[in-house]
Amino acid sequence: MGLPKHRKSKSKTRMRKASNEKRFLSDLSLCPQCGFEKLPHRICPSCGYYKDRVVAAPREKKAKNTTTR
Q1: How far is 11 from 15, CA to CA, in rounded Å?
Q2: pTM of structure
Q3: Alpha-carbon distance 67 to 69, whole Å?
Q4: E strand map for the chain
Q5: 17 SS3 class
Q6: Is residue 18 situated within a structural domain?
Q7: pLDDT digits (tens, 9 = 90+) for 47-64
Q8: How far apart are CA 58 and CA 40, in angstroms?
Q9: Are the CB atoms for 50 and 42 separated by under 8 Å?
Q10: How far apart are CA 28 and CA 23, in angstroms?
Q11: CA neighbours within 13 Å on the CB side: how many for 11?
């Protein structure tokens, strides 16, 4: 059985592992409550629903501090 002749670098190893972890747009599903695109079997980040019930409070966008000094 063949063995590797040279050691693989960290970047090559990580690139190989990362290619299998990519999320494609076809993997997204629509939230039945708000219609926001989300990953399947996850809480919707927009409304906080999962399987027809509220699990978490929806995330609110933080307003930028616009004070002038």
Answers
A1: 6
A2: 0.46
A3: 7
A4: 29-30, 37-38
A5: helix
A6: no
A7: 888 887 788 776 676 666
A8: 17
A9: yes
A10: 8
A11: 0
Domain count within the chain: 1
Rounded alpha-carbon distances, angstroms, from residue 49 to 23, 31, 35, 42, 56 = 21, 8, 11, 9, 7
Q: For position 24, what pLDDT does the model report?
A: 64
What range defines the domain where residue 30 resides?
A: 25-59
The DSSP call for residue 21 is: S
| pLDDT tens track for 4-51 | 889 999 999 999 888 777 666 667 888 888 888 888 888 888 888 888
Distance of alpha carbon 49 from alpha carbon 32, whole angstroms:
9
In a domain, 54, yes or no: yes
44 within some domain:
yes
What is the spatial distance between Cα 24 and Cα 39, in angstroms, rounded to a whole number? 10
At residue 57, the pLDDT reads 75
